[in-house]
Amino acid sequence: MLSTLHSPRSLSRFPLHLTSSVKPRAASASSASSLSDYPPPPLPAAQSPGGAPASQILTVRRSLLSGSVTATQLAESYLSRLRLTEPQLNSFIHVSDSVLKSAQEIDDKIAKGGGEALGPLAGVMVGVKDNICTADMPSTGGSRILENYRPPFDATAVKRLKEKGGIVVGKTNLDEFGMGSTTEGSGFQVTANPWDLGRVPGGSSGGSASAVSARQCVVSLGSDTGGSVRQPASFCGVVGLKPTYGRVSRFGLMAYASSLDVIGCLGTSVADVGIFLNAISGHDKFDATSSKQSLFTSINLLESKPLSGLKVGLIRETLDDGVDSGVKSAINAAVLHMQELGCIVNEVSLPSFSLGLPAYYILASSESSSNLSRYDGVRYGKQTVSDELNALYANSRASGFGPEVKMRILMGTYALSAGYYDAYYKRAQQVRTLIRESFKTALETNDILISPAAPSVAYKMGMLVVSYYS
Fold it and tell me: How many Å apart are CA 32 and CA 196, to the nearest integer?
């Protein structure tokens, strides 16, 4: 997640206001620096306290209720911007054909005097990562094995954002089944970074981060197993949050590593991400791991010290030798900023912290090997023509999966095999329990733990940790 220490800046090299004189250009290696030719968008007129970017969600709501703009006009503006930028960015795998219809329904409701009953996301354009199911659009997981697959239902997170007035723009690109950190591992296309077309947007939620950064949508849904929301958010200059495991229902999320996967949020401001998270979170009867606990108490941002009394633990082992000096400086600056907001910052020691990364790789690969076994050309997935059943399974998976997915399946299958289960998978689970207990102890005297690790090992172990990126 980006620190609010950064001064407000344009989040994309694309112009915010489109004109007829601006023509789409084809992406190419030679034009990778062409975004500098576009003027940056103006800063929002309104700013949050402390100079943070204003909430685009609240701006949309005020505009709709005041009548200064209609939901249809807003939707047309974003669609025009998407058509301008998409040939270069490739943020979306599929764009919805019902955007204007949904916007018109909101306008009709306002015209009938129902403006005050609008949901908190009314008129807000939302991108959805393509490993999150949508009933009216393809959901491929970024894999050729699920090409043209259309689920018969919406994921709970998608259902809730629609119920609160959000408009799904389309499905964003990703590394195949969320396995990657550049979005170059997609089975369909490579997404570019809006700041520089020659650079990657991060991954695996690179399409969601790129879309928000280029203002193709207001907010977007991603998924985070080991940094797949937070890392691309950092690369693209937006805010990304991996909620605590169980905060958002995983029903409808294509499983990579079930004990680590979380649906996350991306937006241009901390306020937008908070509003969006509040809209999609909550217990779900279709997900036994979803939490029944309330989200959080409201924070008065108008106070001089809105975080007064919040106890924050800084993990000592994440600032040892090997951490870049720029990262250390960013963390120290973030600590000073939190203290100015009223936080009490303490240093905590977690000696087992470094064991989290190897444990994560074993657990994630093992779970992916199990979860992806369903894509066999019979139960799910594109089927190849074969004369024999085992050949059908083998050929369907060989032609449908990309190289990264195949490698992780092989690693996981090896770790779960009879001769190596105790040495690898079982031991990784024991390490995970050890680390979780150490975090529970640290959280007895602290409300939040922070780490510069990208992605945070503590998040991987299913604990509540805030990651800062320089």
Answer: 6
Residues marked active site are found at 129, 204, 228
pLDDT digits (tens, 9 = 90+) for 380-438: 888 998 999 999 999 999 999 999 999 999 999 999 999 999 999 999 999 999 999 99
Average pLDDT of the residues in 325-339: 87
Name residue, tokens 């990126």.
469
Residue 454, pLDDT above cutoff 70: no
Residue closest to 17 by CA, chosen among 32, 39, 46, 33: 39
* Higher pLDDT among residues 42 and 450, named by residue: 450
Q: Rounded mean pLDDT of the chain? A: 85
28 has pLDDT over 90: no
Are the C-beta atoms of residues 202 and 231 closer than 8 Å to each other? Answer: yes
pLDDT at res. 295: 65
